[in-house]
Design a protein that fits this description.
Layout (H helix, E strand, L loop, with lengths): L1 H76 L3 H4 L43 H74 L3 H13 L10 E7 L4 E7 L9 E7 L4 E6 L2 H26 L7 E7 L2 E2 L6 E2 L2 E8 H5 L8 H7 L3 E2 L15 H4 L5 E5 L15 H14 L7 E4 L2 E8 L6 E8 L6 H14 L3 E6 L5 H5 L6 E4 L1 H11 L16
Parallel strand pairs: 2-5, 13-14, 14-15
Antiparallel strand pairs: 1-2, 1-10, 3-4, 5-8, 6-7, 8-9, 11-12, 12-13
């Protein structure tokens, strides 16, 4: 009976243990299932958040693109109004340059050298026992030696003072000569401005054409508008003829708006209606026409123009034939008084042109031409006709690339001379021109080696060569001017050396700042083979 009871107890214990293990397994599996469910929910939430942020980003892209479209349309809609707040008259006196005279700075040469003082050389008088033991005789000998040393020092001082005064005289003479040359050049420039202003006031046809070309050249349009025109002036009739190149129809955005398509996951462009494009292009043509005539009349303070004739043409390709064409899309002829009486802020541009009895193409997108009011080739006096391309053709700035070697060297020497360096004689090397100049400033001054090159970009080897020249000359600084740029390795080669590198744009900035010369860097491009 005891064994049976023990067997039964053992069986019950095993059953209890098995039940406990089963419950633990079930509880563990339940925990794992709960964790898996929570992880899945978290992944879904993160995925949803990522999707939401992505949609917001693409929607922002669409909003930015739409902002660009709206800004473009706004620029086109304000073509006329934007010029009404600007005074288009050009005061030619503003082109005159004042004579600014920098004070003469002699530098260290302006300060006399300290004269040797005899008191500094006099030996002390003998005293006491030294005086008794032959001190007077020794003092006499010391005095004689001191007198000789003093006289030698004073002779050297006299010679140095003579050299200083001579150099000071030479520097002052050079300053006065440079000042006189600058004043003469400036006076000639200002006289030319006066001559041009007098010629414009006197209705000289060529000068009047040049003046109004400056007026139209100052007009600010969007970058893709061609500022290309021809002008002619008939002084007897006080008649200004204008042939103006209009922008092509492509200046009107073909997209009305952008939308983000979630299904395609892409920005979809909603096209602008062809009728709206045509309407806006006609409006742009009208605005450009009225704007041009307004700028001419507003800039004419001297009553040079009594009548304006305007032909608006467009250089484009006929999509039907593939050939280049130049149709006249607008033509108008108006008197000064008639146009000045119009309140341009409140007009409809197209209606205003019709009021002026102008001809305006109703379908410029099809390049339908209108009969021009004038035949520019026939009506204009060719002697007083000029063609202007504001973006490319009017540029009288000196081109640093095409200067002769002598002009290039003189330009660099003049620049650093104005900046305060006393330039020495130039010497040509295999890679450029070199000067040993002097900076006359106390403490910070000293010798300066200036090297200018046009043949290629400055390399690390060029920097090492300049550093060697600085060391050989005992100079405190070196300046390298490289018109064609500076390689990155050249900057690495500086390594704390007292060298300064100036590239082409930096040189242009220095010339404009210190010499008031607006230079340019334009290299000839090879013709493209047909």
């Amino acid at each position: 009976m005891q064994r049976a009871q023990a067997t039964q107890n053992a069986a019950e214990q095993r059953a209890n243990n098995a039940a406990a293990q089963q419950r633990e397994l079930i509880r563990r599996n339940a925990d794992l299932a709960i964790h898996a469910a929570q992880q899945a929910a978290s992944d879904v939430e993160r995925q949803r958040e990522r999707q939401r942020l992505y949609v917001e980003a693409r929607t922002a892209d669409a909003a930015a693109a739409n902002a660009d479209v709206r800004a473009r349309i706004s620029d086109l809609d304000t073509l006329l109004l934007s010029t009404l707040d600007v005074d288009d008259h050009i005061d030619l006196d503003q082109f005159k340059k004042p004579l600014t005279v920098p004070p003469f700075d002699p530098g260290p040469l302006g300060r006399p050298l300290p004269e040797p003082a005899w008191q500094s050389y006099v030996p002390p008088q003998p005293r006491g026992v030294g005086k008794i033991l032959g001190g007077d005789r020794l003092h006499q000998q010391q005095t004689a030696n001191a007198r000789s040393a003093y006289e030698q020092a004073r002779a050297r001082w006299v010679a140095a003072e003579e050299r200083r005064r001579h150099q000071l005289t030479q520097r002052k003479k050079a300053y006065e000569e440079s000042l006189q040359a600058h004043a003469t050049k400036l006076a000639a420039y200002n006289a030319e401005v006066d001559r041009f202003a007098a010629a414009v006031a006197g209705a000289d046809p060529a000068s009047v054409v040049e003046y109004f070309a400056m007026v139209l050249g100052n007009s600010v349009y969007p970058d893709d508008f061609p500022q290309h025109f021809r002008l002619a002036y008939l002084p007897k009739q006080k008649h200004l003829l204008i042939e103006y190149h209009l922008p092509p129809i492509e200046v009107i955005p073909v997209v009305r708006e952008y939308r983000f398509d979630r299904v395609r996951d892409d920005l979809v462009a909603v096209p602008r209606d062809e009728g709206e494009i045509r309407h806006r292009y006609v409006d742009v043509i009208a605005r450009v026409t009225l704007r041009t005539i307004h700028e001419i009349i507003e800039a004419d303070r001297g009553g040079l123009v009594r009548q304006v004739s305007f032909n608006g043409i467009v250089d484009t390709i006929d999509r039907r034939t593939g050939r280049f064409v130049r149709p006249c899309l607008v033509s108008v002829q108006t008197g000064r008084d008639t146009f000045a009486a119009i309140k341009l802020r409140r007009v409809d541009p197209v209606a205003c042109l019709k009021h002026l009895q102008g001809a305006l193409s109703s379908t410029p997108d099809e390049l339908t031409a209108v009969p021009p009011k004038i035949d520019f080739e026939v009506d204009a006096d060719r002697d007083y006709t000029e063609e202007f391309n504001v973006l490319a053709e009017i540029d009288a700035r000196p081109n640093l690339v095409t200067l002769t070697d002598e002009q290039w060297e003189q330009q660099i020497a003049d620049l650093f001379g104005v900046m305060g360096l006393a330039m020495g004689e130039s010497s040509r090397t295999a890679v450029g021109v070199r000067w040993t100049a002097t900076d006359p400033r106390p403490i910070f001054g000293g010798k300066v080696v200036v090297h200018a090159m046009r043949g290629g970009s400055a390399t690390a080897g060029t920097v090492h060569a300049l550093a060697g020249a600085v060391t050989a000359a005992g100079a405190t600084k070196g300046i390298l001017v490289s018109l064609n740029g500076i390689d990155p390795e050249a900057y690495d080669a500086l390594a704390g050396r007292p060298l300064e590198l100036i590239d082409g744009p930096g040189l242009v900035t220095l010339l404009a700042t210190h010499c008031r010369i607006k230079a340019r860097i334009e290299r000839a491009t090879a013709a493209t083979p047909r």
